[in-house]
Amino acid sequence: MAAASAAKAVATTAAATVVPYGSERREGQGRPDSRSSFGGGGQRGEGRGDYRGGDRGSYGSERREGQGRPDSRPAFGGPRSEHRGGDREQAPQKPQFNRPRQSHGAMRIDQVQRVLGEILQWTYPADASLSHWMRQHPNLGARDRSEVAEAVYDVLRHLRRYRQYGESGVGPASRRLAILGLNATLGAEALQEGMDAAEAEWLKRVSRIDLATLPRAVRGSIPDWLDERLGAMDSPETLIEALNRQASLDLRVNPLKAERDEMLAELQQSAGRYEPVAMPYSPWGIRMEGRPAVNRWPQFESGSIEVQDEGSQLLALLVAPRRGEMVIDFCAGAGGKTLLLGALMRSTGRLYAFDVSAARLARAKPRFARSGLSNVVPVAIDSENDARVKRLAGKAQRVLVDAPCSGIGTLRRNPDLKWRQHPEALAELAQLQERILNSAARCVAPGGRLVYATCSLLAEENEAQADRFLASHPDFERVDAAEILAARCETLKLEGPYVQLRPDVHGTDGFFAAVFERKKKSAATEPSEGIAAEAAAAQDAAAPADEAVEEEIGVKDPV
Fold first, then answer.
1. DSSP character for 29?
2. I need a surface site. Which of 204, 214, 300, 480 has the fewest CB within 10 A?
3. In the UniProt entry, which residues are flagged as the active site (predicted)?
4. Which of 55-59, 103-107, 295-299, 366-370 bottoms out in mean pLDDT, i.e. has the lowest?
5. Ligand-binding site membership of 402 (annotated)
6. What is the pTM of this model?
7. Is residue 480 a known part of a binding site?
């Protein structure tokens, strides 16, 4: 999508202040909601884009360790102004109507510069900082908010290249960045009255630079460590370009309350200007352009639709839950994927939503109620080794691990992640992912299915993690995930055994998934150490969860 289209898309969001720009951050689009925190990570594809796992963190929350500037650094540089001198009295101000009116270009440059000054401290996620700034300026109109937001996110997408351009300019660096972002979204003509002669000449000069002459990492505005990893993949140029485009708005129909074709016809009638179309792969998906105020629509308020990236929706096809089963969403976050799993179970059996954040699960409860589900059991756990997790050893027919990760696959929605994430953190994330996956595997019944997923494109979080799990768990066997999806999505072309979705190929966020099945007891293979006793103790692995199990793990009635 071109920069101008991206500008229009963001404009609607900022104006409505409904879904924070760059979120959906969260479901299906950055994992925004569904992705559990378990101590770190990046964003998933669901209405929000959280750092994975879970919420990326609201403004004022504690900064995650190893990310951004030290906590001691002020987030917004102190008060807007300081009283100078000892006398509190100030000279009378002239009536405001006598002051010279600031031009539109000058005003917009100043606003974007101020927002960037806050965001580029990297103390908080960009959407949280932008929302905070918007709340501090309640008198801004819809146009103001949209133009500021789209310029800010353009700068975040192209920050490295813009910074290189800015080295030849004059004035504060944040002002040069603001001019470049607004030039891309509004055009140079709109800025003429806001720039001096030197700035205007500098802008003309850098606008003539041939992008083909720049190194790939600068042209695509990604850090060197990420360029090295993406460069090892097929067609890295097109992948990087796709990650720098704004994502579409993906909706999911609730199978308990609506049919996709009927909902599509309804939205084409009531929201036709957003060009709703059926998604190419998901049987429940509807794709739209722009950022309408979906959460004010009656279809959303009734629980008939949710915001969720198509890639996130496809994970439910890999889990393939059935009626009456015990299913565990191990990193449930705010419940994006949980909602679809519960609907596919027709609200029967037991669906445990595990997460280390009780606050996230509490925020998910209204979503569960709105969706019509009655089989979801939210469980706030201390860690992946919580005793309540261990008590479900060998009992679940389906377990989904939507693991905390770097969130690199969600850069379309959360472009600041590439600047907030660091290669040193990847090793720690890999260890966390391995611990979570090993713990979740204990819950899988013989013959049951384990699905490991991330919203990352990086091999160390994806294929390497899946291969390592398989090598250390001989009681599990790999199932070709690509074949599972091909059986449901004939137009989806993938090469197994794993699933890797890409924005440049599939039009989704970057998602990875691996599917494993636990061998039945009759298999000749010896179970892996630490799991054999637990598997043998599961007398009736196929039985659904009952009151005794719920009492054992200390949970209340389903939502």
1. E
2. 204
3. 455 (nucleophile)
4. 55-59
5. yes
6. 0.79
7. no
